[in-house]
Amino acid sequence: MIPRTMERATQFDPSTRSKISQGQSPSILAQGLSHYFGVGELKKQVLFDNNLTVWPGEIIIMTGPSGSGKTTLLTLLGALRSVQEGSLEVLGESLVGAKPRAMEQFRRKVGFIFQAHNLFESLTAIQNVRMALELCYPDLSAQEQQDRAERILVSVGLDNRMHHRPKQLSGGQKQRVAIARGLVHEPKLVLADEPTAALDEHSGRTVVELFQKLARELQTTIVIVTHDNRILDVADRILTLVDGSIRSDALVKEAAIITQMLAKCPVFERVTPRTLTRVADEFTIEHVAAGQQIIRQGDQGDRFYLIRQGRVSVRRSQPEQETTQQEIVQLSQGDFFGEMALLSGQPRNASVWALEPCLLYWLNQERFQTALADTVSMEAEVREAYFDRQ
Ligand SMILES: Nc1ncnc2c1ncn2[C@@H]1O[C@H](COP(=O)(O)OP(=O)(O)OP(=O)(O)O)[C@@H](O)[C@H]1O
Ligand SMILES: [Mg+2]
Fold first, then answer.
1. What would you measure as the largest C-alpha separation in the chain, in angstroms?
2. Which residues are in the CB-under-5-Å shell of ion ligand 2?
3. Ligand 1, CB cutoff 6 Å, lining residues
4. DSSP secondary structure of 333-380
5. 380 Cα distance to chain centroid
6. 3-class SS at 321?
7. Ligand 1, closest atom to CA 227?
8. Rounded CA gap, 90 and 85, in Å?
């Protein structure tokens, strides 16, 4: 069952913002971060003046073309290479000018899940995982180490592969051992480079659910480099690296997506993009499980929905035959429903059911009015668009 969470579609988790006001420290704070490879004439800049603030408990997904600098940025965040230019504080420590010994100490606080698995070929899966624990918690009893390593391997679905060596495991299984090893010491920061690339949909989900659990329960910050669209929904923010610069984050990206979706809805047909982005700001995220009813025919609901992911069925029953519903249409990503709720107080004229797990964005009358209140022209634009259609 997918948890039902609610937060602004275009904004950071509100708890994150309250952290700022409470004076809490970010887990990652990069300012003017640049990086170069090579020397002399071969010197080549690969990261350009990047600023980034990430908070405890946030899950960040980083995407971008091959060669754009994602791995370089990750290795800087994890003190696998030295900062050359700009400032970088991670987990409360400045990594600028850090000595090798300090960097090594620092790395113990981080969970690395990198493309190359780097598993020890001579050790079994569980021995590989235990090694990570021993490094961080040498005082833990052997029994406790064994128990923790077993628990994490079970949670990535490797119950019956614990005593196999890497060469007896498939690519996806090795990947899951690497993930277990990266998470077993419950680090405050996890850096993952394409962690689900070799995994099927089910295993990929299991892994991101583990990430979510860590983020929620231990306030672990998780940075995931991925091209896997199937896991984008776990991100609090999506960063895009292009040519060594962080070009956008979810704020911009989601606002743009919502704006495009809204532009297709007759209610907003004549509304300018600038105003639409204001409306986009008022949307709330909702996850709905497969089989769940979203709207009930006859109810007085006041929400307008956009489908960000998933598929729903719109069904209607005749007044005299309320038990038999007929499907009118199926809607999917990019479609919307319930828009009349924003404008009129009429009861719902159909029911809507989720056919698969859905990620929905909704706006109610109150939020809609908030957006209207923010701009004089907006109200005029919407009214014009709506009433001209009558
Ligand atoms: N050790 C290195 N020495 C010299 N150049 C390097 C080194 N590592 C990376 N580069 C170069 O720096 C740029 C950024 O590389 P990086 O590995 O960070 O990209 P990436 O975004 O992770 O790409 P991919 O999606 O293919 O993994 C590339 O042009 C790459 O060729
Ligand atoms: Mg890379």
1. 83
2. 70-71
3. 37-38, 46, 64, 66-72
4. TT-EE-GGGGT--PPPSSEEEESS-EEEEEEEHHHHHHHHHH-HHHHH
5. 36
6. coil
7. 25
8. 15
pLDDT of 255 higher than 80: no
Per-domain residue ranges for the chain? 13-249, 253-387
Query: Which among 179-193, 274-288, 336-350 has the top mean pLDDT?
Result: 179-193
Both tokens assigned to 172: 């996806």
Helix (H, G, I), strand (E, B) or coil at 47: strand
Q: pLDDT of 2-59, one tens digit each?
A: 233 344 555 444 344 445 545 678 899 998 999 999 999 899 999 999 988 888 999 9
User: Domain spanning 13-249: which superfamily?
Assistant: P-loop containing nucleotide triphosphate hydrolases (3.40.50.300)
Cα-based distances in Å from 315 to 43, 266, 311: 63, 21, 13
Q: Say which CATH class 253-387 falls into.
A: mainly beta
The reply to whether 13-249 and 253-387 are identical in fold is: no
Q: What pLDDT does residue 229 have?
A: 76
State the Cα–Cα distance between residues 372 and 77, nearest whole angstrom: 42
Distance (Å) from CA 291 to ligand 2 centroid: 39
Nearest to 117 by CA among 214, 204, 227, 192: 192
**CA-proximal residue: ligand 1, atom 2 (nearest):** 37
pLDDT at position 343 over 80: no
The end-to-end CA distance of the chain, in Å, is 42
Ramachandran angles phi, psi of 250, nearest 5°: -60, -30
